[in-house]
Design a protein that fits this description.
Immunoglobulin-like, Cytochrome Bc1 Complex, Chain D, domain 2, 5-stranded mixed beta sheet, binds heme C, binds copper (II) ion
């Protein structure tokens, strides 16, 4: 899409876009039809009962239960259908395909930084393969930003201190605009860039190019040793700390009786706020790494923890 493309010609470049558009068009059609019908009836009545017309005006009806029930419950039913449909569409943004490719995206005044699993990084650009489900895990280094790609019809806040995620499948190769949709300071209007949806083969080639560094999980392993995590969490360590193999997706029993599924937000909190969710059977001796790790470090550490799956490192 370029600057001269009119808004109504905005392409639908993802599965979410088609779902949002279908809902929007049906709501527009139904409310538009009702609006036209109301204006038509108004016009008919204005003409029929105009001053001096021979219309019958004696004893107008004052009450009709059938009419009142109909105009109350028909719109209610129609709007509840819209609500249910919209809830399904909304829910689909947050239900990731198990095969989805995870990309970490960090908002920062005033840029978007992305990290792919193989270690490739980009700024104000995001390359994606067509037809492959992706899941963006968003965070922020300063204030609230909002990741907005109109051609995908997705808009998701990136909030400091926590992870948010959104899932979709890009469907149409092309170049689309990326914006920040949450006022975040002086250069907010310039915060954004381009999303490139590529054919899978071209994407695989792109991913291999560029500065060849370690994968995100390998960078995480490096940090895991450098920050001293392994000193406690290594199987040979004398410190009583949980075994981290297969931690991602595990159901964790906490000291206060709650159970929680170890997802990315949980792993994040384990590192930054270890006292928040203390694992049952362990002493709360783990120090907080708040201020010692950047958002980029966190995504590397979490990728590493996720790669510690019983099935072997996956790097997803
Ligand atoms: C001083 C020892 C120590 C260090 C250093 C340490 N941890 Fe821990 N960690 C623990 C203990 C003890 C627990 C269990 C109690 C708790 O939940 O706070 C734990 C819990 C965790 C959990 C939750 C595990 C589960 O089964 O749910 C994760 C994830 C974790 N640590 C990751 C890390 C990472 C990553 C680092 C390095 C950045 C690190 N830890 C450094 C001792 C440590
Ligand atoms: Cu912003």
């Amino acid at each position: 899409m370029n600057a001269t493309t009119p808004l109504w010609a905005l392409p639908a470049a993802s599965d979410t876009a088609s779902r949002v558009d279908a809902l929007f068009l049906v709501v527009l059609a139904v409310t538009g039809a009702v609006t036209l019908a109301i204006f038509a009836v108004m016009a008919v009545f204005a003409i029929r009962y105009r001053r001096g017309s021979p219309a019958q005006r004696a004893s107008p009806p004052t009450q009709s239960r059938v009419v009142e029930l109909t105009w109350t419950f028909t719109p209610l039913a129609v709007f509840l259908c819209f609500f249910a449909w919209a809830a399904l569409v909304y829910g689909s943004f947050y239900r990731a395909d198990p095969a989805a490719m995870t990309i970490y995206v960090v908002g920062k005044q005033w840029m978007w930084k992305a990290q792919h699993a193989n270690g490739r990084r980009e700024i104000d650009e995001l390359h994606l393969p067509a037809g492959q489900p992706v899941r963006l895990v968003l965070s922020s280094e300063d204030v609230i930003h909002s990741f907005f790609v109109p051609a995908f019809r997705i808009k998701q806040d990136a909030v400091p201190g926590r992870y948010t995620a959104i899932s979709f499948t890009p469907t149409r190769p092309g170049v689309y605009r990326l914006h920040c949709a949450e006022y975040c300071g002086t250069d907010h209007a310039n915060m954004g860039g381009r999303v490139y949806v590529m054919q899978p083969a071209a994407f695989a080639q792109w991913l291999e190019q560029g500065p060849s560094g370690a994968s995100l999980a390998a960078q995480g392993f490096e940090l895991f040793r450098r920050l001293g995590c392994s000193g406690c969490h290594d199987a040979r360590s004398s410190v009583h700390a949980p075994e981290l193999d297969g931690v991602y997706g595990r159901t964790v029993h906490l000291a206060d009786g709650r159970t929680i599924v170890a997802d990315e937000p949980y792993l994040r909190d384990s590192i930054l706020l270890p006292k928040k969710d203390v694992v049952a059977g362990f002493e709360p001796i783990m120090p907080s790494f708040q201020g010692q790790v950047s958002e980029a470090d966190l995504s590397a550490l979490i990728s590493f923890l996720k790669s510690l799956q019983p099935g072997g490192p996956s790097g997803k």
